[in-house]
Amino acid sequence: MITAEEMLTTAYTEAQLGLAEGGIPIGAALFDSAGNLLGRGHNRRVQAGDPSLHAETDAFRNAGRRRDYRDTIMVTTLSPCWYCSGLVRQFGIGAVVVGEARTFSGGHEWLAEHGVSITLLDDQECVDMMTKFIAERPELWNEDIGVAE
Ligand SMILES: [Zn+2]
Description:
Elements: H1 4-20, E1 27-32, E2 37-42, H2 45-48, H3 55-62, E3 72-78, H4 82-91, E4 95-100, H5 108-113, E5 117-120, H6 124-136, H7 138-145
Residues 54, 56, 80-81, 83-84 line the site of zinc ion.
């Protein structure tokens, strides 16, 4: 059985890919309950010029069609924003593994209130990655989270 930390490694690798492409370092992946990787992706706002291309939506779309999501696990390097939290609710994804929620706290507590299993790893590598990015590219970060100048 794959651990939450091992699943996070896939999301973290995706985040680093995004950073290397000049984008926002947030990565995600969707697994089934047996630990099989269904899809992986990263935030591509900058690369694709698409503000709706978040890490979670990218991983979700790359996983393709599926009848039922209750037994799937979405792993993401950062607490999911409202948009991605909405995706989790919309499709009934059963569990979310969150790398960290210190640099940004989205909807993970709201998801927990609605019965989604939440694992918050508070991973130091994820915290360091976002802290560095926010310090270096504040304008890009504020654009991504919808904060006005
Ligand atoms: Zn999002």
